[in-house]
Amino acid sequence: MTDDGLLPVADPMQQAATLADALPYLRRYAGDTIVVKYGGHAMGNAELAKGFGSDIGLLKLVGINPIVVHGGGPQINKMLERLQVRSHFVDGLRVTDESAIDIIEMVLCGSVNKQVAGLINRAGALAVGISGKDGGLIKARKLVRKVKDPASGTEQILDLGFVGEPDRVDPQVLYALSGSGLIPVIAPIAAGYAGETYNVNADTIAGAVAGAVHATRLLMLTDVPGVLDRNGKLIPELTAAEARKGIESGMISEGMIPKVETCLKAVREGAKAAVIVDGRVPHACLLELFTEAGSGTMIRRDGSID
Ligand SMILES: Nc1ncnc2c1ncn2[C@@H]1O[C@H](COP(=O)(O)OP(=O)(O)O)[C@@H](O)[C@H]1O
Ligand SMILES: CC(=O)N[C@@H](CCC(=O)OP(=O)(O)O)C(=O)O
Fold it and tell me: What distances in angstroms separate CA 91 from CA 94, 146, 183, one per listed residue?
């Protein structure tokens, strides 16, 4: 840092030119809402995490309204292990019993949520950590997972315990925070109608929130460059119809299926576009928003051109 708090610049002309290049993009997104799902590698790496905090702060500073939804699967694993509580996953969802739900809420809302808000606060912006329970943001219902028994062909219902899915999203609390110059940071925990607590997959929450606030972009940070074709080449853009075809054909598989389905749901429910972005790349959010090429795979509403 220099005495006046600015970063030393190797080539000031280059930096000025770069800032000027960003101007059309700043205009394009001014006043818009961008929902960012933060997780994966970007969260576990101190340098990337610091960059993420300042990128989110920068978005707010230039008149964009970022909303962050964070995960925390690895952090939950660590704490459950420490407390010797077993957990296992079905289709990427953690089966959550009564002894696990309290610990999960403690880790996500108490620890991870404050860490993520802290990253943004340390960058000089003002973030407020909440969960889906706060301000009536998300009402969840128990997730019903049906599986077909391959032997008999009959359908069975799997009990995943306190795993929920968003039923109703009321974004008033998000508008109140964003409108007061604050950045909401949401932990993926929600209340049921009888006051029970549900553990909800963070991608799912991000998609539901992006749809409810009609976000201009949902950015899903992950550990791959985006959706890859069968030759391992990045697909920069998919229409909703193409994405559905990719799942049907098996080109999109495993953990990428729920991610793409979340994007499809978000654009169906009101988001303009969703982008699967490589969170391992420094400043991935800025690269996606402020460059022509972008950085991942964009999934648009059918018929949408921007
Ligand atoms: N077409 C595809 N393009 C990219 N990744 C794919 C594709 N099909 C399956 N995958 C798998 O999906 C994974 C991403 O999902 P996941 O690991 O659940 O992400 P995260 O941990 O960030 O939520 C990739 O690591 C890859 O193994
Ligand atoms: C139901 C369910 O599986 N909930 C997740 C919530 C956290 C999450 O989604 O974190 P990532 O984004 O890091 O995976 C869990 O318990 O791990």
Answer: 9, 11, 32
Q: Identity (one letter) of the amino acid at 272?
A: K
Taking the centre of ligand 2 as the mean of its atom positions, its distance from the CA of residue 93, in whole angstroms, is: 7
Token readout for 298 is 């964009």
- The closest alpha carbon to 266, from 288, 240, 287, 297, belongs to 240
The pLDDT of residue 258 = 85
SS3 content of the chain, % helix, strand, coil (to 5): 40, 25, 35
pLDDT score recorded for residue 1: 46
Is 179 annotated as belonging to a binding site?
A: no
Atom number, ligand 2, closest to the C-alpha of residue 74? 13
Sorted by where each begins, the domain ranges of the chain are 27-300
Q: Is 222 in the pocket of ligand 1 (CB under 6 A)?
A: yes
Cβ pair 254, 91 in contact under 8 A: no
Whether the predicted interface score ipTM is above 0.90: yes
> What CATH fold (topology level) applies to the domain 27-300?
Carbamate kinase (3.40.1160)
> CA angle 183-202-208, nearest 5°?
75
At position 33, the amino acid (one-letter code) is T
To the nearest 10 degrees (0 to 180), the angle between helices 73-82 and 98-105 is 120
Which residue ranges in the chain fall short of pLDDT 70? 1-10, 40-41, 303-306
The per-residue pLDDT for 14 is 82
DSSP 163: B
What is the per-residue pLDDT for 7? 54
Residues 6+ away with beta carbon under 8 Å from 254: none
170: how many CB neighbours lie within 10 A of its CB?
A: 13
Which residue shows structure tokens 């090429």?
293
Give CA–CA dist 280/42, Å, rounded.
6
Which DSSP state fits 268?
H
Q: Is 77 annotated as a binding residue?
A: no
Residue percentage of the chain with pLDDT more than 90: 75
